Amino acid sequence: MTNSYEDYSEDAAYHNAILIEKLEKKFGEINDLLYTTSVPNEELEVKILPYIAEDVIFRDPWQEGGNKDIYSIGMKGFHNMFHFTFDTYQIGVQLHGTIGRCIVDGRMDLKQFSWIYTFPLRTIVVYDFRLLDADGPDGVKFEIFRHEEMWSYLELIEGIPGIGWIYKNMFRPAFGHLFVGVSYLSCIISPLFKICPQK
To answer: Are both 110 and 92 inside the same structural domain?
Structure first.
């Protein structure tokens, strides 16, 4: 039984790497379905909802909250009202026991008025999940209990035609000079109002 511990460790590491690879592939598919709004609601119900926990929470810079029923309504409404696609730059999964996190780094493209302009928005999507069965007959089984979108309001503003140019080339430089001016003024005034602390 020489090297049995080493053999076991190598075998466990190998199986964990395979599991991570399966999870990354599945989350890539889920993310594509969620953020390609041409996917019909019926397909979302079959391919997405089985992976959503009853206590799921959705969060983005606009909102937070929910459960599976509310998540389902919001997911379908997003697909009904908007025209988005998502380009994935990279995806990674971390797993600690039965709790894991998947981070998807990419860009959402709003194509609502694509004949005029496609609105790009750099986005990080985070899925926290519970691993239910690593070796199920239908593949790895898990449930997502938190889904979060992270993107910048400033980038959102900068991406708006016309308004973005004004914000980037006029407002930000002006605000920067204003802030420096006020800071300089505070350096002059502050010593005049300092009072020695009482001992």
So the answer is: yes
